[in-house]
Amino acid sequence: MRHGKKVNHLSRKTAHRKAMLSNMACSLIEHKRINTTVAKAKALKQYVEPLITKSKEDTTHNRRLTFAKLRSKEAVTTLFREVSAKVADRPGGYTRIIKLGNRLGDNADMAMIELVDFNELYSVGEKKKSGSTRRSRRSRSKKAAQTNTENTNEEE
């Protein structure tokens, strides 16, 4: 029975697991997406989402708590400046796990974990409006006719 066992040990000792998750979290914050195994991605999601929640309120205490987990000044700075600004209105669910298939070498299940607000492909909100690309002789001739009539009216 596995009652109350919430931590996936990932076949590593405690120090190795903590260091690995810290390094993966720093890479995720820096690059906004990383490829890893599904089990590590799920463990990383549980590790990094509370840190992102802490970064929404920029206090010295939250920065120190986050630095204790990440051990990287650059990652903490990026987290509190860029990432927290993007996720300020989101109530949770800051990461997304996309399964990629199996690794060729050992057939391990691979996944991509990414920060949700940094992927423009899946953004549901505002869409970028493209410029008019339609070229029609009729529309050009109407504009030309309008400018010709304005020019003739000015000359008279």
Automatic annotation (TrEMBL):
Subunit structure, briefly?
A: Part of the 50S ribosomal subunit. Contacts protein L32.
Gene3D superfamilies, sorted: Ribosomal protein L17
Please give the Gene Ontology molecular function terms for this protein.
structural constituent of ribosome
Residue ranges, compositional bias (Basic residues): 130-143
The record, for InterPro entries, names: Ribosomal_bL17, Ribosomal_bL17_CS, Ribosomal_bL17_sf
Q: Which gene encodes it?
A: rplQ
Name the PROSITE patterns on file: RIBOSOMAL_L17
Q: Where is this region: Disordered?
A: 126-156
Has keyword Hydrolase? Answer: no
Ranges of biased composition (kind: Low complexity): 147-156
What keywords were assigned to this record? Ribonucleoprotein, Ribosomal protein
Q: What is this protein called?
A: Large ribosomal subunit protein bL17
